[in-house]
Amino acid sequence: MYQIDAMSRTPVYEQIADMTEKLVLSGVLKPNDMLPSVRSLSAELKTNPNTVQKAFTELDFRGIVRTVPGRGCFIRPDVFDALKKRAAAKLAELCRLCREIRAAGVPLEDITTEINKIYNGGEENGL
Amino acid sequence: MYQIDAMSRTPVYEQIADMTEKLVLSGVLKPNDMLPSVRSLSAELKTNPNTVQKAFTELDFRGIVRTVPGRGCFIRPDVFDALKKRAAAKLAELCRLCREIRAAGVPLEDITTEINKIYNGGEENGL
DNA sequence: TCTACTGTATTATCCGTATTAGTACAGTTG
DNA sequence: CAACTGTACTAATACGGATAATACAGTAGA
Predict the structure, then answer these.
(1) Are A91 and B110 within 8 A, CB to CB?
(2) Is A122 exposed, middle or buried (0-12, 13-18, 19+ CB in 10 A)?
(3) How many angstroms separate the CA atoms of A114 and A116, rounded?
(4) Residue A110: how many other CB atoms lie within 10 Å
(5) Which backbone phi and psi does A69 adopt, to 5 degrees?
(6) A64-81 in b/e burial notation, b at 16+ Cβ within 10 A?
(7) Which site among A22, A42, A66, B73 is 20 to 30 Å from B116 CA-CA?
(8) Residue among B20, B40, B16 at smallest CA distance from B30
């Protein structure tokens, strides 16, 4: 279910968190589903339990999961609200970048054509 | 000419580099102009000469300046080509973000309306 | 040539943060 | 009580950023 690239520059705990988020987006993980335990997942990924825990803490911070001591880590019932907020934050970041690009003198058309390509281009969803 | 925010989370050397780039974009610095010397600028900004040197090295890497040992650090004659390449790189980064946002289920219209706001909104250029 | 400027290189130290790890503790369930 | 769950604490390591002191090398002008 999970797959980690140890050679990536993105930290392992972040890979786990991002992957979990995408598993929700793709419907593999649904609200109230329980995630693998800290120990089982760390064994599967051959990492330290604390690394997995940090991923869970990150997911908790993002509003994706709710962890219950002694019971486990569960996808929040309102996970899609959290995902919407995350998307909004990414959109804000995109706007920040866009202002920089505008300041660099790039015309609006250059941006819109690229974005249209992305939205028209095929069915790949990048998950 | 230069102004540094020591409390910012962006490193001083990066602030210097970014500011220099913007001074070119706004026409304050022109091709072949000489930048302040490492020592004078570090004195002015109350930083270490090495910090300024790192900024100059960064600007060299970006293709903004050409430093000549013994003479000084000068805005490259072809600086605007470098700026175009930098803008293209930023556009690529924007596209990467855009794919993420699309994967999160955000409709194309949400993005285009935000971007149109930025390009129609006033004359502020963020420099 | 001498002098005063320019950038460059080297080495070291300090600080803060990120990442991973080891170990022990605490809550829950049957 | 046993076996599972998450949690806290500490430590080792690495990295990035900034500072500092020094020394070196190229350039330009008096």
Answers:
(1) yes
(2) exposed
(3) 5
(4) 13
(5) -55, 130
(6) bbbeeeeeebbbbeebee
(7) A22
(8) B20
Please indicate whether, in this complex, the C-beta atoms of B97 and A93 are within 8 angstroms of each other.
yes
Please tell me the pTM assigned to this model: 0.87
Q: Are A126 and B102 a contacting pair at CB < 8 A?
A: yes
Which one of B91, B93, B100 has the shortest CB-CB distance to A106? B91
Q: How many Cα atoms are found within 13 Å in the side-chain-facing hemisphere of B108?
A: 11
Give strand C nucleotides closer than 7 A to any protein Cβ: 5-11, 18-24, 26-29
User: What is the H or E stretch that residue B66 is in?
Assistant: strand B65-68
Mutate to test the interface with A, among B100, B120, B124 (most CBs of A within 10 A): B100
Residue from the list B103, B114, B118 with its beta carbon closest to the beta carbon of A127: B103
Token pair for B57: 């090295």
Band of residue B97 on the pLDDT scale cut at 50, 70, 90? very high
Cα angle at A92 between A91 and A95, to 5 degrees?
90
